[in-house]
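Thread amino acids onto this structure.
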């Protein structure tokens, strides 16, 4: 089994990212390890090759729409008739025309992921206006290149799964197994996030030993009955998904971390 943790480098890790894994410096401190570290920047040639394949199939088109043109936040595929294009030369965002069929899918927890992504999510941007190749395509290419067989991630990403499955099919790469876990939430109910001022790993490291924090996280999600200190390696042998709570948990910080 090959899995991965692919954080966006927008700031320090917080308890939500620590729940699954975290940035490299904090991984070692907490006691987690890994087999390989890969930078997306090193795979630019693979990402461009994928765009070339999709362009050759007539799947890419430039988009002139703004956020204001969306309906309930969903892109309406307004510019679909503007392709095909040379994606390297256009200065506009480039979208991928998805297949219109429905994807029937459940993850390993039984979470319903079935969707007609071309309608319910809209054709995704695959190359941004600034030239950056976008998440939905990059993650599919990187997973395939690494031979990823199982993806475990938070439920906030679940709505993207059907879109990624369609892209996998269009590129002819395998579809991994998926599992989406609970989220740590702020008291007001929003997803815990760095942009919302969540407590950072640096602060947590100044307050707790690694085994103390690991015990709090393990207890908070149901893997331990008490928040006694432990190391990640101790949790591996006793891990079972039916011990992990399905319900999202509230995470608060005053001078200590509490998950309730």
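Threaded sequence (260 positions):
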């Amino acid at each position: 089994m090959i899995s991965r943790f692919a954080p966006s480098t927008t700031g320090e890790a917080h308890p939500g990212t620590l729940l699954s894994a975290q940035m490299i410096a904090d991984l070692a401190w907490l006691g987690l390890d890994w087999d390989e570290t890969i930078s997306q920047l090193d795979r630019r040639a693979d990402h461009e090759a994928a765009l070339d394949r999709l362009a050759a199939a007539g799947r890419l088109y430039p988009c002139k729409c703004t956020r204001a043109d969306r309906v309930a936040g969903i892109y309406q595929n307004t510019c679909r008739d503007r392709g095909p294009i040379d994606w390297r030369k256009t200065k506009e965002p480039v979208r991928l025309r998805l297949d219109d069929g429905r994807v029937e899918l459940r993850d390993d927890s039984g979470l319903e992921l079935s969707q007609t992504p071309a309608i319910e999510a809209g054709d995704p941007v695959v190359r941004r206006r600034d030239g950056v190749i976008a998440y939905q395509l990059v993650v599919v290419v990187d997973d395939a290149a690494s031979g990823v067989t199982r993806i475990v991630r938070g439920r906030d990403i679940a709505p993207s799964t059907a879109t990624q499955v369609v892209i996998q099919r269009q590129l002819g790469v395998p579809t991994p197994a998926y599992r989406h876990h609970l989220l740590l939430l702020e008291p007001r109910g929003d997803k815990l996030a760095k942009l919302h001022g969540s407590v950072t790993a640096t602060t947590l490291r100044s307050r707790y030993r690694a085994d103390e924090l690991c015990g709090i996280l393990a207890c908070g999600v149901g893997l331990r009955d008490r928040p006694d200190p432990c190391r990640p390696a101790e949790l591996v042998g006793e891990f079972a998904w039916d011990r992990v709570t399905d319900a999202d948990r509230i995470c608060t910080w005053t001078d200590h971390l509490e998950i309730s």
